[in-house]
From TrEMBL:
This is thiopurine S-methyltransferase. It comes from Columbina picui. The lineage of its organism: Eukaryota, Metazoa, Chordata, Craniata, Vertebrata. It comes from the Eukaryota. GO terms for biological process: methylation. InterPro entries: SAM-dependent_MTases_sf (IPR029063), Thiopurine_S-MeTrfase (IPR025835), TPMT (IPR008854).
Length: 196
């Protein structure tokens, strides 16, 4: 297939942690993502006080935007450094607590209570731990998971969605023979079959 060159590639959690340690975080957008501004109304569809999920959140500034608009934000990220940088770069006080259901897992929550960031692998989560969401901002998430884990990732995401939730997905389009990823190239046909 046209993505054959990427399908066996695996990036380990350790490699992601190293990227954060080395400051190899070219994916981080200081200014926030223009596509979230553009499609914000689609995500919210006139609703207020939503619970919004940020899978593989890094230190995405969009979490602060949505919290400032009155929504509750939940993120998950393996790098504790990323999460600490998020809170410190926005001067947000937070507290830390273990997550009893997840060995080694931690929850970092803003003192104001509206931003909860789980430090663990997304595959450790379930709706019994984090509940369900009205909206999802998936940027640098589906395209960052290892190709062999895509179906597992998508099935989990579907299990975390409320009935009327909206899911904004950002992908990248390029020739997968010219770049090894991440971000990986996920063709639209595959997205359709993954999400059903
Ligand atoms: N969505 C963010 C970050 C994208 S980069 C943004 O838009 O800026 C992908 C992030 O996923 C990295 O920060 C990496 O540390 C994290 N990550 C990779 N595998 C993960 C996993 N299994 N569970 C949770 N986070 C993971």
């Amino acid at each position: 297939s046209d993505v054959g060159s990427q399908k066996d590639r695996v990036v380990t959690e350790e490699e992601w942690l190293q990227k954060w340690e080395m400051g190899n975080i070219g994916f981080h957008k200081e200014q926030g993502h223009p596509l979230l501004r553009k499609y914000l109304d689609v995500l919210l569809s006139g609703r207020s006080g939503l619970r919004i999920f940020f899978p593989l959140c890094g230190k995405a500034v969009e979490m602060k935007w949505l919290a400032d608009m009155g929504h509750r934000v939940v993120g998950v990220e393996v790098s504790e450094q990323a999460l600490k940088e998020f809170f410190s770069e926005h001067s947000l006080p937070y507290c830390e607590e273990p997550v009893p259901e997840i060995t080694g897992g931690k929850k970092l929550q803003s003192t104001s209570g509206n931003i909860s960031l789980y430090c663990c692998s997304i595959y450790d989560l379930s709706s019994s731990i984090v509940g369900k969401f009205d909206g999802v901002w998936d940027r640098g998430a589906l395209v960052a998971v290892n190709p062999c884990d895509r179906q597992r990732y998508v099935s989990l995401m579907i299990s975390l969605m409320e009935k009327n939730s909206s899911y904004l997905l950002v992908t990248v389009s390029y020739d997968p023979n010219k770049h090894k990823g991440p971000p990986f190239y996920v063709p639209e046909t595959e997205i359709k079959s993954l999400f059903g």
